[in-house]
Each structure stands twice: as structure tokens, then as C-alpha cells.
Amino acid sequence: MLVKDLREQVLEANLELVRRGLVLYTFGNVSGISRPDGLIAIKPSGVPYESMSVEDMVVTDLEGRIVEGKLRPSSDLPTHVELYKRFPGIGGVAHTHSEFATAWAQACRPIPCFGTTHADYFYGAVPVTASLTAEEIATAYEKNTGLAICRRFDELGTETIPAVLVAGHAPFCWGETPADASHNAVILESVARMAYYTIGINSEAPAIPRELHDKHYLRKHGSKAYYGQAK
Fold this sequence. Notes:
The chain has 231 residues and is of the alpha+beta class. The protein has eight helices and seven strands, in the order αββββαβααααββαα. The protein has helices at 4-19, 77-86, 99-106, 116-121, 134-138, 141-156, 178-201, 210-221, and strands spanning 29-34, 39-42, 58-61, 66-68, 92-95, 163-165, 171-175. The radius of gyration is 17 Å and the shape is globular. The chain starts with a helix and ends in a 10-residue tail after the last helix.
């Protein structure tokens, strides 16, 4: 079996989304990449999570061609491929239709940083992509979704904001590993829910001051980070 360890990681990351309540039925998918092998492992399309096995994970190359596996890969594979090709720091991608993050995507509104929970994970507002054109939707829809994300993050960089809202669609998240990508998807949903409640309580709520945002993000991710234990 090719990239068995990666396939195990991808299966576990997919199941984590189920455990955390981020998926319904067969919605969503997680993938991972082995950069040395040039291979991607991804959830199969339309297969119930409760019946998935390591063997069911589909292995493709960086052009999305199946290298190993009896099932069809997730229909969102071309989106994942574009992210892996454009951003070498990404090692895993997670896509969900989680309720609150998807609501922000459908509203085509970025999620502002209203508090320090957001600031711990995202160094700025969680952005929204531009809407796809009719031609982009009609031709290579999933690939064009990936390219829309890439265009947005060519400006922002993927390291400090590991998530995006695809306009009219749903969120994609990423990380150094498939587990990191799923973790960020869980955090994004929590942040999206809190932001929704925040503007429900106070529609004029401001974003937190830059100084507080910097403090919380950098104490966890900066060069002088001191959150957690020494590695």
C-alpha cells in the first residue's frame, strides 16, 4: 500500500470532523500530501464516514491522477490540488460545510476578529474569496475554486490565516498536517459561531485592537512564543 502512514492520518483527520460535529452524512473531506513522494491521499467521494477504512483513501499525484485506490476521490480534489501546488507549506486540507462558517461564506462576509479566541489562531479576519464567474463555474468548477483561493492568499499568505470562506459555498482550512487542517476547521467553526452571536448582541461591535490581536497571535505563533510547553 502506498503512503500507508499518510492514508492513516487522512482517515483519522476525516473522522475527527465527524466527532466534532462538523459534517452531515458524506459532506466534507480531508486530504494530506507526502511532498517527498509527490502523492496526495484524500477521502473517497460519497462514502459514509462510518464505513471508511484506510484502504478506501484514494492516492493521486499532483495532477489529480489516481495512482492507487479502487474508489473515486472526493469531487473537491482539484481544489486541494491547486492549494498544494501553489503553497508548499500546506501539508493537509480540510473542507466542511459546518453550519456557522458556511453561513458566513453564503453571506460573502469575512469573519472579523472580535476577540482573543479568534486572534489565537487567525492573524486577521478570515477572508472571503471573490465569487466565481459563470464561465468558471461551467468549466473546471472545482479547479477554479482552488484558483480563487490561491489568488486571495497570494496577497495574504497561508501561514497566518489557515482558513478561507469560498463565496456562496463553504470553508476550506489547511495546516502542516491533515490533523492540523481538521483542527483549524474545528476552531474556525467555533470562531464563526461566536462572531455570529457577537453581532447579534451588538451589531456595532468593533474588532479588537491591533495590539491585543498581535499579543494573542504572537504569544502562540511568533518567534518569541511562550504559550504551551517547550518543544
